[in-house]
Amino acid sequence: MATIRITQEARGRVPGDGVDLAFGYWPGAGTPVLAIHGITANFMNFIGIAQKLSGRSPVLALDLRGRGDSDKPPGPYGFAQHARDVAAAIRTMQLGPSLIVGHSMGAFVAAALAAESPELVKAVVLIDGGYVLPSSVSAPANGELNAALAERINQLTTQYPSRAAYREFWKAKPNFPPDEWNSWIEAFLDYEVGDCVAGEVGPVQPKALQSGVLADLMEGAKRDEILDRLRSIRVPVTMLRAETGFTREQKPLYPDALVDGIRECVPQVQDRKLNGTTHYTIVLGQTGASTIADVIADMNQRRS
Predict the structure, then answer these.
(1) For residue range 191-219, what is the model confidence (pLDDT) as tens digits?
(2) Is 187 helix (H, G, I), strand (E, B) or coil?
(3) How far apart are CA 282 and CA 37, in angstroms?
(4) Between residues 198 and 220, the one the model is more confident about
(5) Which CATH code of 3.90.1300.10, 2.70.180.10, 3.30.1330.10, 3.40.50.1820 fits the domain covering 10-135+208-302?
(6) Is the distance from CB of 71 to CB of 1 less than 8 angstroms?
(7) Cis ω on the peptide bond leading into residue 76 (within 30° of 0)?
(8) Which residues contact residue 153 at a Cβ distance below 8 angstroms, ignoring those fewer than 6 apart?
(9) Backbone dihedral region of 78: left (phi > 0), alpha (psi from -120 to 50 degrees) or beta?
(10) Torsions phi, psi for 2 (to 5 deg)
(11) 50 FRET partner, CA 20 to 30 A, in 44, 102, 106, 216?
């Protein structure tokens, strides 16, 4: 079979497990990086990290089923299904064993992939996700999480006058502080709602399928399955945690108190808190993207 070579930044579609998935690809040398986004996001979530890697690693970032420009079937969904889609894409793209990077819900999918297709996984990076949030440990964070998710899910069926209006909607919210606003965030938001009827003019709506998001949200309650997957991982694992929650004023989703629990499941985990980051800016802010890119490059260099 001929080897697939992509020599410049590319966009396209690749077969998953019975669906076609949209992807972004940034070329580079060394171990491939497979990036998995969060519950309502898209592959542009990783544009900053990919650019900061600057060719040090090739990056393939997928739109999960029901998100972005990927197919949106009525079902099935869930972490294991997304993992099967990702595994199919890795095999089709002939990436071989890859460094799997998952943000938020994507971290749970990364763990499922490592558990179900370990031959495709060289190492795992969990970014502010992947471990259950016990209410007894982090009740305030859980309350903020539930409120933020409810608002976000309702927003998926809301129309906005234009892509510019959608950017302004987010610019007015505290999720992306003014000092962190950048072209990566704008690219992520523009892709999230797609093209208007005529350029910047015309109604737009988030692409994520609300029913698919809700189905995936229910997966977070499957505590035993989540922990069993983490316990099965045998490759190196790095956990990167945001200093605060969805905004700078919120408590972190993964506070220091949870680290011991994570380490009980994954004894080999390397834990690191990224100061000055939120759940959003840990991937799309300058500090977060730069740090994560360096962590990925270092992990790949040590395993090359």
Answers:
(1) 999 766 555 567 999 999 999 999 999 99
(2) helix
(3) 12
(4) 220
(5) 3.40.50.1820
(6) no
(7) yes
(8) 40, 210, 213, 214, 217
(9) left
(10) -65, 145
(11) 216
Cβ neighbours for 197, distance < 8 A, ≥ 6 positions apart: 203
For CA atoms 8, 11, 17, 20, give the dihedral sign.
negative
Q: What pLDDT does residue 138 have?
A: 38
pTM of the model: 0.94
Closest by Cα among 206, 216, 241 to 85: 216
Block residue for tokens 């209006």: 165
24 phi-psi bin (left φ>0, alpha ψ -120 to 50, beta other) = beta
In the block, which residue shows the tokens 């998710």? Answer: 149
* Among candidate residues 5, 13, 59, the one with its CA nearest the CA of residue 32: 59
Amino acid at 144: E
